[in-house]
């Protein structure tokens, strides 16, 4: 198995959203109170519990340019939460979802992509990372398409 690390959004991104209440494109943050599952924080990689306040905002996970550099909706807790350390351990938040894994080259061009049950994502990661052109992978919730985490070979 190719060793990998799952990497959440940076703390600076979450803190700036909490403080300024606008995203990188200047659009206002949407405040939502979780009424059950389905509000995944992309900083701590844990789902909100009912009653927790979440911030929904537009975010681009790309550090590259190119046509695949898109902005999409993600959540973070309104309260401060500890960033999940980059790790090769798949968080439960991802295990419980149908995921789209998209492999990109170093320039940010998509090389390969597929959908997988989160409980079996290692097998798809192995396939994607076996292609030496794949520099990184983005995990997204397959149905709504929201960015979940970046994944890198180590």
CATH architecture of the largest domain: 2-Layer Sandwich
Helix content: 10-25%
Query: In CATH terms, what is the fold-level topology of the largest domain?
Result: first zn-finger domain of poly(adp-ribose) polymerase-1
CATH level 1 class label of the largest domain: Alpha Beta
Number of strands: 8
What structural class do the secondary elements suggest? alpha+beta
End-to-end distance: 11 Å
Task: Indicate the radius of gyration in whole angstroms.
Answer: 15 Å
What is the strand and helix layout of this fold?
Blueprint: E1 4-7, H1 11-20, E2 30-33, E3 53-59, E4 72-77, H2 92-95, E5 98-104, E6 110-117, H3 121-130, E7 136-141, E8 147-153
Antiparallel strand pairs: 1-8, 2-3, 3-4, 5-6, 5-7, 7-8
Short synopsis of the structure:
This protein is α+β, with helices and mostly antiparallel strands. It has helices at 11-20, 92-95, 121-130; strands at residues 4-7, 30-33, 53-59, 72-77, 98-104, 110-117, 136-141, 147-153. The protein has two domains: 9-77, first zn-finger domain of poly(adp-ribose) polymerase-1 (2-Layer Sandwich), CATH 3.30.1740; 86-153, no CATH class.
Question: Can you walk through the features of this model?
Answer:
The chain has three helices and eight strands, in the order βαβββαββαββ. With 154 residues, it is an alpha+beta fold. It has two domains: 9-77, first zn-finger domain of poly(adp-ribose) polymerase-1, CATH 3.30.1740; 86-153, no CATH class. A five-stranded antiparallel beta sheet has the order 1-8-7-5-6, with helices on one face. A three-stranded antiparallel beta sheet has the order 2-3-4, covered by helices on one side. The protein is globular. The model has no long low-confidence stretch (mean pLDDT 97).
């Amino acid at each position: 198995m190719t060793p990998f690390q799952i990497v959440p959004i940076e703390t600076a991104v979450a803190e700036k959203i909490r403080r300024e209440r606008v995203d990188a494109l200047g659009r206002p943050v949407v405040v939502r109170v979780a009424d059950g599952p389905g509000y995944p924080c992309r900083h701590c990689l844990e789902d909100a519990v009912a009653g927790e306040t979440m911030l929904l905002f537009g975010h681009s996970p790309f550090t590259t340019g190119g046509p695949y550099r898109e902005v999409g909706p993600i959540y973070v807790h309104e309260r401060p939460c500890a960033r999940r350390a980059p790790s090769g351990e798949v968080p439960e938040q991802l295990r419980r979802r149908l995921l789209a894994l998209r492999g990109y080259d170093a320039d940010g061009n998509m090389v390969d992509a597929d959908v997988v049950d989160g409980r079996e994502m290692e097998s798809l990661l192995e396939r994607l990372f076996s292609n030496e052109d794949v520099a990184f992978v983005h995990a997204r919730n397959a149905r709504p398409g929201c960015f979940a985490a970046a994944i890198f070979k180590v």
